[in-house]
Amino acid sequence: MGDLGLGQEFHTWHQFSSFFDDWCEKHKVLFIIASLKPLISLRQNPLHYQPSLAATLRFRFVRLICKHSGTYVGQSTVQRNRLSEKIDCPASITLRLGLVVIEASLEHNHKLSEVEFAHYFKRHQLEASMGLPIRITNSVSKRFLAPDLIWNLEDYSKAKDKGMCELLSQLDGLFKSDPGAKVKLVFQEDVAVLNSIFLATSHMRGLVQRFPRCLYMDKAACVNSEFELYSVLCQDSNGRGRECAYCVARRGVPDLVIFIVASLVQSAPDIKLKVKCLTVGAGITDVDAVEEVLPCARVQICRLQVLEALYCKARELAVPKEDKVRNLLHNMANASSPRVYSQYLSDLEDLAPLPFLQYYLEHWHHNKGTWAECWAFERNRDCPFLEHMSFHQQKLRSALSPPLGLAACVRGLLELQALRVEMAALNEERVSELYRAVCPPDSAALIAEELGLAKHANYHVKEVPEGFLLDGGICSFLVSRDLATCSCSIYVSSRRPCRHLFATRLWTGQPLYDPGLLHSPSGSEGQDT
Ligand SMILES: [Zn+2]
Ligand SMILES: [Zn+2]
Predict the structure, then answer these.
(1) Could you tell me which residue ranges the SWIM-type domain spans (predicted)?
(2) Range of the domain at 434
(3) DSSP single-letter state for residue 373
(4) What ligand is nearest to the CA atom of residue 469?
(5) Could you tell me if 278 and 330 lie in one domain?
(6) What is the pLDDT, as a whole number, of residue 78?
(7) Cα(425) to centroid(ligand 1), Å
(8) Using CA atoms, how far apart are residues 352 and 314, in angstroms rounded to an integer?
(9) Cα–Cα distance between 423 and 14 in angstroms, integer?
(10) CA-CA distance, 515 to 123, in Å (whole number)?
């Protein structure tokens, strides 16, 4: 193979990587990065390079090996799932300072396959490379991160990739304040390019463990031109949608849904058999394998979103008699029995033009069981999917203003996990009314006042062995584990639920209205004070 040889020189990393992309495409060869050393390393004295040189050359040593090489330079033989892929192919290319080719072994010990090439090759992978060794990124991708792994990655990323460093230090901070957080960084196999971040704090994991029955998942926001945010919500005792997992993922990453669901179950294994229904947005299609991870769960697609998608398509195809078509679609979605559905379907077959009918049959008919009323998980009940998602998106908008870097995105998501944010959306009037119905007016008025104050509560909530510690900076209060008593003077003197009880209940998802709180406790707590 010609046109790449010893002594060949490149002036920028960009120039080399686009040349190499072309060259690989021409010869149908697949190379992966075995080793990259940055031009500037913090471990060594900063050399006399100009900063602009560091930005354009980026690396002082680059070694690329054939995808079928069995070993990475300087490392032991890497064991792979598909061992047959690694057949110790000797092809490799090495570049040294100034991006000069100093070694090029271009003979392979296998046939070059166009099919394989077409399947694996992606341009710009080399250019995007961050310099993390694939031996680390490949193994990191398969498990939850531990703090020491973060330091390890941080060490490698220093001075090479500012965005990655910021992200890692954000995650380092998370582990310091919340050692129980579960985070995965997934890199493209054999390429140190970040594909997705899975994130669940201890609090989020606690929520899904308490309320695993119905989960809701959708693409919730665009982070930047490359990444999107997926959120998983559960529903707490107050009927509120609560965040229980986030995944920031590169657009078009395959098998994302199953990755998110499997990671969620790994982060809270108790829920595996407790999840009965997962409702997803109409844009989420690859749900087939979900039932393997959640064997007791039904997967549903939000019916209103399906209808919205169908209406859009009808408009786009300029379907004649659009109103009638919309009516039929609405009736099919809300059909009370499979027979009724079939009747409306045959009406649609008579009425709708072929292109629309084809679209319908290909996209929505075969999975009608996931969105039409008569096959619904719980029939004749309003699905709260849209309400929860739009509430969630409203919160996101207050914290994230895209386009965002990944570190800023993670920071924003973590900042949303605060009592202050949850309390701000409290509809205290609705709860007050329930108490008014069962209390003497003066008690009810005092409870309403506490609820109003709870709305502005700004505490850091920490779970401790005795219950929940609400730290407000100047003073802190202890709410008992059963969320029935508080250490504050209002509760102690009156035995009425106080703002701290309400705040803790809202935070943990327990009911704000609980007649049990009104009974004067007969226990010994009364004498303690
Ligand atoms: Zn080869
Ligand atoms: Zn209190």
Answers:
(1) 477-509
(2) 422-517
(3) G
(4) 2
(5) no
(6) 40
(7) 59
(8) 9
(9) 49
(10) 63
